[in-house]
């Protein structure tokens, strides 16, 4: 578990002070993948560098499994740094070393013996799916392969936390997927807690359990992706789920008695809830907008639906009782939309 409490960090510029982190607090559960997203200059990299102990915050605490890393010094700080593997932004491999040689670097620094090093490097090459590239130099690898080697190198010393700063920027979508798969495997097979800094919400959609949205050095939204997408007005939800033409379009009109926005999470809900509600309550149900997507392996749908029939309200209530997230237009006492 990583807990960040009220973290502050400022930089002096010629024209004044920039508050890169302005009281950031967030939590990442052990073994989860957390996406840190936000616009350029929001403070994402500064947060990552502070957690990686590459930058000292001005104030606040960073607890990994209960220990406040900010208060550490000397030997304890060096030991804590080894617990955090870092995949830096951009190309970070040494050109004059092979893929295997790059992965072995942290092991050499830690004094791990030759045979043990070879075994560990072999395991890591296998984890990132590049066993056949052991003796290849970075220049002969694709951008995605280089990033996968950088992930393997970051995992070499068996850290409990893996921090990746924009690991997929400048990669095409299929290459991006291969890097994300490797991060996901690190979590699933090694139990590593993964923090991914990214400006790309597709990364959050594909692998994140948790997300923190930063803006101007502050956390403006934070939580489990699957919970946030169901919250009305969530920025994460608005970005990750299909649009449905919101606002006035939720007002009942035309031939529908009730118009509502419905978010459905999981195979059972997405596959069966709407037709079952329509059949059970004898209402006509029309999909007016929205669509399907996936969050990791979980199917999620957001639809604008129009219900017609005497028991339309009862059908909606029944869906809510089955964990559908329903957003209705406010209705006045005379039944008209407010
Ligand atoms: N070493 C530094 N010296 C001075 N200012 C810095 C330094 N690092 C970051 N900043 C400033 O702090 C603010 C936050 O920068 P940071 O790189 O953390 O944002 P970011 O969200 O990662 O942006 P990007 O997506 O563009 O990388 C910016 O205004 C930046 O100019």
UniProtKB/TrEMBL annotation:
Q: Which domain of life is it from?
A: Bacteria
What GO terms describe the biological role, i.e. biological process, of this protein? amino acid transport
Q: Which residues form the ABC transporter domain?
A: 2-241
GO molecular-function annotation terms? ATP binding; ATP hydrolysis activity
Q: Which UniProt keywords apply?
A: Amino-acid transport, ATP-binding, Cell membrane, Membrane, Nucleotide-binding, Translocase, Transport
Q: Which SMART domains match?
A: AAA (SM00382), NIL (SM00930)
The answer to whether UniProt assigns keyword Cell membrane to this entry is yes
Record's protein name: D-methionine transport system ATP-binding protein
The organism of origin for this protein: Saccharopolyspora shandongensis
